[in-house]
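Example with several molecule types.
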Amino acid sequence: MEASSGHNLTPEVNSVGVIGAGQMGGGIAHVCALAGYNVKLSDVDESRLDQSLATMDENMERQVAKGKISNDDKRKALGLIETGTEISIFSGCDVVIESATENEELKKQILRDLCPHLKPEALICTNTSSISITRLASVTDRPGQFMGMHFMNPVPLMKLVELIRGIATDEPTFKTIQHMTVRLGKTSATAEDFPAFIVNRILLPMINEAVYALYEGVGGVESIDTALRLGANHPMGPLELADFIGLDTCLAVMQVLYDGLADTKYRPCPLLVKYVEAGWVGRKSGRGFYDYSTDTPVPTR
Ligand code: NAD
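Resulting structure tokens for the full complex:
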């Protein structure tokens, strides 16, 4: 056991907290509840909590229709989820997963506010797409019990969870979260704590390059997406995928790569910056590289 660690046994996880009821936090709450954990879900914006519960209901209904889960599974899972806007709702949790907006200062403030409410043995994970786990851990009172648990979007469908140790993460913490990943029905890949880890280190520069291709007029939105779908056998085109991830998140990840690796090849495309400044952040805002106001998304360029 490491001197800094507050525990030496793999703690049993019964209750999981999720901070941020956006597209990812809602998905994490969904899979945790279906795995039988008691779930507490928080957001600063109360309307996001209602929206998130409605989305979970809809998505579980789809799973029932496909025969993946029973009506009873759905009913039980939804019954395990409690929501609230106060950070104190996490006081009884064994693990808390931070999944708020991708902004380092905001995440640090959340973590500082969270720690005094937690049990000493509670573990904290962050679902950050790119920010240093070690830096986020350093503002907590338990860097040994802190690590990255990076889910993929949409969480109920995507099999991978990237597990990232900070420099101080202790082995019982890693093992507990690895077991939890298995109980969620996911497969883990372990990444070291470098900017954007594995998936986004490779995926986001590709998306950024697609935005450059659009910016330079190499092709329109539809041509670029069709080219990658049919020419590289990708299930979604890169611009469609960018809208799905959220252009604000894409920009935040590129900025972390650019700042963290100090290489101009990671320079965020000015067109991506402009879309985010306009509030055109993709599906979640109704407009990004496609306009989502009609049934079939319409390319905007
Ligand atoms: P989102 O914009 O859909 O949701 C973020 C939520 O955080 C919002 O509901 C917001 O109200 C809430 N929030 C902001 N400040 C808060 C606070 N102080 N306390 C509680 N809630 C707060 O974003 P998202 O796509 O769900 O991303 C969330 C996290 O997941 C980010 O760190 C992102 O990098 C990561 N992530 C995103 C994806 C993706 O594809 N979108 C994939 C993997 C990981």
